[in-house]
Design goal:
It is flat, with a radius of gyration of 28 Å. With 111 residues, the chain is mainly α. It has 3 helices and no strands. The protein has a domain of 49 residues.
Amino acid sequence: MARSRLARFGLALTMAMCTVAVAKLPPLSDEAKAKAAEAAAKAAWSDKVASYQLCKSQDTVAATYYADVKKAGKEAKPPAPTPACADPGPFIYAPPAAAAASAPAVVAAKP
């Protein structure tokens, strides 16, 4: 029982120290924010690639199933209509700051 209390106290102390450590971190630099944005974009692209690969494998399994059923001489229900698999293409990251920098800046003329 004493060991359990000691473990709880240690956990509470560790959590309190982590909270203090996180609170004192400096704000992210612009470069770190850009890297985080690129990492988020790449993660989203990776999710799309995974979804595409899953869709293609499901199509393959369904085609094999229907071929086996037809070969066995049985009748199967027609497949449910599904959207076509969308290939996300290669990863291309265009940072928002670069897109804004490439656009010409409009400067108002002073009267």
